[in-house]
Amino acid sequence: MCNWASAVQLSLSQIGLGKKAPGAVGHLSFTEILDTSLKVSWKDPNEKNGVLTGTATRISWEEFNRTNTRVTHYLPNLTQEYRVTGLTALTTYTIQVAGMTSKGQGQLSSSTISSGVPPEMPGPPTNIAISNIGPRSVALQFKPGYDGKTSISRWQVEAQIGIIGENEEWVMVHQLPNEPDARSLEVLELNPYTSYRFRMRQVNIVGTSPPSQPSRKIQTLQAPPDISPYNVTLRTASETSLWLRWVPLPEWEYNGDQELVGYRVQYSRAASKEGVLSHVISDRLEREFTIEDLEEWTEYEVRVQAINGMGSGPWSQPVQGRTRESVPSCGPTNVSAFATTSSSILVRWGEVPQADRNGLILGYKVVYKDKGSDSVPQYWVVEGNTSHSVQLSGLGKYVLYEIQVLAFTRIGDGRSSRPSILERTLDDVPGPPVGILFPEVRTGSVRLIWQPPAQPNGIILAYQITHRRNTSNSNAATVDVLSPSARQYTASGLKPESVYVFRLTAQTRKGWGEAAEALVVTTEKRARPQPASRPTVPQEDVQARSVMLSWEPGSDGLSPVRYYTVQYRELPDSNWTVHSASVNHEASSYIVDSLKPFTSYQFRVKATNDIGDSEYSQESEAVTTLQDAPDKAPTILSVTPHTTTSVLVRWEPPAEKQINGVLLGFRVRYRELQYDHLRSFTIRTINSPASNWAELTAPYSVRNLSESSLTQYELDNLSKHKRYEIRLSEVFVGEAVPTAPPQSVTIQSSTATQLDVTWSPPPLDSQNGDIQGYKIYFWEFQLQNETERLRTMFLPELGVKIKNLTGYTTYMISVAAFNAAGDGPRSPPTRGRTQQAAPSRPSFLHFSELTTTSVNMSWGEPGQANGIIEGYRLVYEPCTPVDGVSKIVTVDVKGSTPLWMKIKDLADGVTYNFRIRAKTLTYGPEMEANITTGPGEGAPGPPGEPFISRYGTALTLHWTSGDPGRAPITCYVIEARPSDEGLWDILIKDIPKEVTSYTLNLDMLREGVTYDFRVIGVNDYGYGSPSAPSPSISAQKVSPFYEEWWFLVVIALVGLIFILLLVFILIIRGQSKKYTKKADSGSHSNSTSLPLSHGEMVRLDEGRFPALELNNRRLSVKNSFCRKNGIYTRSPPRPSPGSLHYSDEDVSTKYNDLIPAENSSLTEKPSEISDSQGSDSEYEVDQNRGGQQKTHSFVNHYISDPTYYNSWRRQQKGVSRPPAYGYTQPEPLQGGLIQGLAPQCQGTLFRPKGSRTPTPSLLSCSVSEPPSQHGTLLYSSRPPSSLGCSSTQQPPTAGFSSFV
């Protein structure tokens, strides 16, 4: 019996048998598959829906599609495997397993297995196609892959959602079980208007296949939003507006184009179906809206829905809110007035219409004023809403009043009633006439004038004048009654120098009124009054806004004082101001009111009689009024919730002039508004007429602030979710913005376009409620104003992936939390940089200098580098094959510069396609352009064939002008090409149009290379056709003769001959000296040496040998060749061959200028001393070889014997030569070189320091040199001589020699 690996074809079918039946068993599998048996394994159902008791599992098997062969077994509940036996080999069986409870059998799990066939891992599906794309579903068609020799039990669909890319995550979105023959399936529960890319896997009993190739990218259709905004709240904003807030939809709930996503707000009066209004908000990120133009003190119901391009989503749950209290919008109705007395009027009114109350009516004010005057209206306040009448008292008599009534609420006064009510008080007796003066006074008569009473209190019917002498015993009085229009009266028959009393009274319907009295003296000696005394102000009479002045009257000048005038001025700089010009003449004190508190004043007084005014009295001492309460309350700038139980009050103090003293502090009054959540109000009757409006609401709490510089204060320990009045500003307590930013903001660079930002929430004590979300502000570094963007998260998550960023760019990110009250502070900006990415395409692609075979191509840097530009890749190819060949050329440009390239291998008249792209980590998109080579239409024709003339290292090209084309030629261009390469390139540009030849230097070309040249004309249409190529010419330079090889060889040979000749001469001289020394030693051994005469010369003239002349010239010291025993002696004479003679003639006078002074400095060049140089002493003898020499002439000796003549050539190393002077560095003298006399050579003079006799030095001279080239100057120094010299070493002597 064979033991095969399991080959199972699963097709699970789940059949529901009841609500309480267990679910399907899990992990059904087959192992140990043999020809006649197999082992079945499973696990308990995930949904047992009861207790598996008793026979808890049912298993059955049957041959495929043959139910009559079914075998069933019931197993205990702990059994999870079973061996099925009695099977037929190579037969397909269906095996079913189900759980059991007391409620019955659960869902079946079935599998089909074919024995005898080894199963394998399945292959991936192929040929995935997409159709029937809807908002929430698509249909997939596919071709099954390799099934692994078993049936497919399940199809799996994976998708990339939203963001599609190679590195994006694949998510399981759909599974289709128990359909092995499926060739298509429908993927459900997709998100509308979302990008998807799908792939599939197939599953059999062995495992899951690899994924298929991804499908094409698709986008589901749009659909209306599925959900409504949540967390909708409504708060009072003002008397006519409500503040609505909500949490916007997340992006995946838009279900459509985000540009078309918005919100619709619907609002109406509460419990009213009429007057429904709506407003559309087009900003998808908006989360608040202020509903304007509402009724004051009215409750509204508001709801919100999301909308997109396809329609509207569901409405949110309605919320309710009431607008703030306001002042009544109209006055009470039915206002009436009735005069009850001459000084009182009874006013009555009705209710304010309900719609116009705009709050709780706390009382009424009756506004009244004299209609005929410009005085300020007066108010009579009636507290409470129960009284609708008032008796106005203290009114003027017989005055016409204009009366209005208004209602007031907690906020302030409403509008006055319309129209105004006019009512006049009853008449009464008049007041006294005013302004009595006596302009004319005589000893027997007087004339007086007056004005009507200030309070006529009715219609004036008559005036009555009474006058009498002002004496105690005068009882007789004269009475006259005048008409009401009279304004003057003349009394006559008076006694001179007497005092009279005049009384004047007016009459109305109610009778005679109060009389006015005046005194007059019948005299003609009247004068102006004298000034009053200096006013005084007792300190006890100083108040905050008034003071009492006291003074003593001066003399009246025999004319009684009629009135006083009081002036004041405010210190330090104010002018004098009249306070009153009608102070009673009998007064000696006066109360000055309407002054400013805490201000310094001075006062003065003057009197006035019938003659005129007195001088002003002296100014009083400075008086400072007392302090008073400030005239104006501080201005409340804002009241904002700070925490859930406190508010922050900000205010502005009153102006300095309104403080009225030293500011000590502030007092904050606040109270809770009890009626905030009331939907109806109960009328409360106040029986006490003294009740005030504060009793209708909660009493004020007071906090005193003793710091005068405060401008804000936090009111804490308030109740949550209550509305408070901060006298008089209203605020809702219980909601406050977060007071701290999110903590620990970190940034991780994920990709080139994505940054992962994480943070921690604000501290719990600073959140002030539930955090509803976060706002992420991000911008490019140092470009905040230009690039700042906002990403809002409406979920309290602690991280976000910011995508669609620019590669390799530094960003600054700041995070702020928000709750229902608003936004909290931002966190400090944190820096992060995206990774490198492919750059954008180059910004431009330009072509210039287009010829028939070349073009200059330039490009711009990518607009977004997205990293460090490593180089560019240029690809160009002909659009059509050239000669049957389409050559593609790829050029890699390393580095970010240069941004141009010369393309030279193009064909004439061919259109080429150029593509270039930049590279960072990878290549970016291409910039592409086409261009056709060859002259464009209107370009110049070809110039004439150039010919070339050559002058040394310069080449001159000559050409003739060709057809200029459609525009004049602007310039010429010369192209060149090496003959062996065949690529033309521009060599010279911008040659003036007038020029038909051009000279160029060979240094511009590569030496030794043969070049062709051609000329191109240029006009406004571009480069024209090139001329025919010039004859080829080599760029080899023509060197001067002295740089030719043959000249150098000749110079080398001449030099060699010179060296050989010089060596030969030196050898001959050396041998000659030895011969002469030997001959002279025998014949002159006993002779006395004689000093040499000055000017002795030795000349040698042997055929082709140059003449040698030795000249000795007297210097500043004596010359000698040898010194012996302190006596200068003459050296032995030389032998005298026929061609050699001596001369005692002095050196020619032309040498005189060439001999340097004794302090001349001579330098030497050891490198120029000849190796064949002999001794410069003509008398030194080699003792070892002297005896072997013959005693004949040294000239005949060497001439007759060729062996000796050429002996210097055969001399070997080690053979001794005539000894020469050793070379030592002499101490130079200050001087210069001495040039020789002969035109063929030069000589030098060298004399060491301290020498007494010039010594000839060897001279090298070439007879073959041209006259312009001189021989080399040679210097040598001699050691102490061994010939006839003293044992004491002498310094070397110096001398010179020259060839003549």
Describe the structure in your own words:
The chain has 1300 residues and is mainly beta. Helix content is 4%, strand content 38%. The chain contains five helices and 84 strands. The longest helix has 39 residues, at 1045-1083. It starts with a strand and ends with a strand. Mean pLDDT is 77; it is low at 1-19, 676-698, 1084-1200 and 1203-1300.
Q: In percent terms, what proportion of residues is strand?
A: 35-45%
Query: How is the main sheet built?
Result: 5 strands, antiparallel
The total of beta strands comes to: 84
The percentage helix is under 10%
Task: Please give the count of helices.
Answer: 5
The tally of structural domains comes to: 11
Terminal CA distance: 134 Å
Judged by helices, strands and strand pairing, the structural class is: mainly beta
In short:
It holds the Pfam family fn3. By secondary structure, this protein is mainly β. It folds into eleven domains: 3-114, Immunoglobulin-like (Sandwich); 126-219, Immunoglobulin-like, CATH 2.60.40; 230-322, Immunoglobulin-like, CATH 2.60.40.10; 336-424, Immunoglobulin-like (Sandwich), CATH 2.60.40.10; 434-521, Sandwich (Immunoglobulin-like), CATH 2.60.40.10; 539-624, Immunoglobulins (Immunoglobulin-like); 635-682 and 690-733, Immunoglobulins (Immunoglobulin-like, Sandwich); 743-833, Immunoglobulin-like, CATH 2.60.40.10; and more.
For the structure shown, list the relevant keywords:
1300 residues, repeat, membrane, 11 domains, Immunoglobulin-like, disordered C terminus, 5 helices, mainly beta, 5-stranded antiparallel sheet, 84 strands
